[in-house]
Structure formats: C-alpha cells, structure tokens
Amino acid sequence: MSEKTEENLLFDSKVHKRIGELIEALLKDESIGSSRQLGRITGIAFNTLVNWSEGKADPRLEKLMQFAYGIGWSMTELMRYAEGDEDPHEAIARKKAQQQEKAK
C-alpha cells in the first residue's frame, strides 16, 4: 500500500467508535490498567491511544496493525471486532480464553 493511500485511509465513524471502546475496555482490564501501560504493550504513545479513543485522531494502518499485534490480536480479528457489535469486554475475555486454551 502506498503512503498516499495509507494517508487517505479513512475509517467510518462506527469503526472509530469501536476502536475507542476497545481501548477504553483494555484500560479497565486488570492486566493493563493505564494508557501508559497499554502504550508500553503496543509500542504506541499513550497520548496517541487517548486521541484514538476520543476520536481526535485517525489511526494509520501501520499503527493500527502495531496496536492489534501488541494486544495479541490479528488485524483480521481487530477489524471483525470493529465492524461488529460484540461488547468490547466480552471480546477481550473471549480472546484471553482463546489464548489460554492455545497455551495448554
């Protein structure tokens, strides 16, 4: 994907809202607890994550991929979540259960 195409990649308002809801739910998760910690996990500055969650900034594709992999999700999983209607807390719990099952 060219840089120009990436710069022009716009997410619809539902996807923005869903990514923001996921970030908020991750911040409430006992294993993360703060935007700074989420920033450390994902390698994305905490203020960038806050801006995403508040809809003040559009995530670039590269950063969105980095975010997905940092939280242990694939881009496919992240986009399915963003385009769906699953509760973010349930999505996090489901993913944790999948990861624990895989570890057995």
From TrEMBL:
InterPro entries: Lambda_DNA-bd_dom_sf. GO terms for molecular function: DNA binding. This is Transcriptional regulator. It comes from Aerosakkonema funiforme FACHB-1375.
